[in-house]
Specification:
The protein is of the alpha/beta class. The chain has a single domain, classed as Alpha-Beta Barrel (TIM Barrel). The protein is 37% helix and 10% strand. The N and C termini lie far apart (41 Å).
């Protein structure tokens, strides 16, 4: 049995909703890149499909250095979701030395700057309901850092977890640990524990990747079991299903052809693993090959809808 403390707000929501209608509890971002493009291009033959199949689905909004004043940006977003009586999904993506200098390079300029940023992020959430995914890929990518860099990154995670615990009392925080083809479950569990997951809600998998539900779900259970063995507690997890409908294309990760959107975002019945399937990566936003990382491509979006 997994021993874990689930925050009352999420536990009540899980108990009150079933898989068939749970997605109605999650916020649809009216300013997502797909929604903005569809509104601006109504005469495009792809617009209706992109609007209906992608823009009208609940998904995550990513926050980083481009977001301007982070307190205002986060506060405005969760405020809009609260007014709609929905739960927003947010991604914090500003860790120093982000993405090991690859396609999504960037992040805060110093450890102190990141601490200020993440504290303001958590404070802006306050007592409003939210789901937050913390720093996709940052823990699996520890290996690109030297010993001091690894220690500093783990300290930043621990700091962030503490801020969310103390300042964002109704937020379910998930620490990202990559995907099922990256780390062995025992190593993933060790990194999560070292990052402070004991004081977070759970962990996230498959963000911006293509691994199948069957593979991700089995891996998530294995990671939780490894946490149980190592630390005496397990944790729930969520899976990004935004682009995994056809599974991966070998080892290609950068805008591979022939991929497809997966099951839409939903909160699963209480006690399920995964706890939720979420569209964390926005379908149609490039990985950095078909277009600049994060840029919306209607061609990518349209192909993801039909799997070609």
């Amino acid at each position: 049995m997994i021993k874990t403390l689930i925050q009352p707000t999420l536990a009540l929501l899980l108990a009150a909703t079933g898989a068939a209608n749970a997605a109605t509890g999650l916020y649809v971002d009216p300013q997502s890149s797909a929604a903005v493009w569809a509104r601006a291009n109504p005469s495009d033959g792809r617009a209706a499909d992109i609007a209906n199949r992608i823009a009208n689905q609940p998904g995550a909004r990513w926050f980083g250095g481009w977001s301007g004043d982070i307190g205002s940006a986060v506060g405005g977003y969760v405020g809009a979701a609260a007014a709609a009586n929905r739960i927003p999904v947010l991604v914090a993506y500003n860790i120093p030395a982000r993405d090991c200098g690859q396609a999504s390079a960037g992040g805060a300029g110093s450890l102190a700057a990141y601490q200020d940023w993440i504290r303001a992020f958590a404070s802006a959430l306050g007592n409003r309901q939210a789901i937050v995914v913390l720093e996709p890929d940052a823990l699996p990518q520890l290996d690109c850092l030297d010993a001091n860099g690894k220690a500093a990154r783990l300290q930043l995670f621990q700091y962030a977890v503490t801020q969310f615990k103390n300042l964002a009392t109704q937020t379910s925080l998930y620490l990202d640990i990559g995907n099922s083809s990256w780390l062995a479950p025992a190593e993933a569990a060790t990194r999560l524990a070292n990052a402070g997951i004991a004081n977070a809600h759970g962990f996230s998998l498959n963000v911006s990747n293509y691994r199948t539900d069957a593979e991700s779900n089995a891996y998530g259970i294995a990671v939780s079991n490894a946490l149980q063995q190592q630390k005496g507690y397990g944790k729930p997890f969520v899976v990004d299903t935004s682009r995994n409908g056809n599974g991966p294309n070998g080892t290609q990760w950068c805008d591979p052809a022939g991929r497809k959107i997966g099951v839409t975002s939903r909160i699963n019945p209480a006690g399920s693993q995964p706890e939720m399937t979420l569209w964390i990566k926005s379908p149609g936003e490039a990985d950095g090959c078909a277009a600049a990382a994060g840029a919306f491509s209607p061609e990518l979006a349209y192909k993801l809808i039909y799997g070609y």
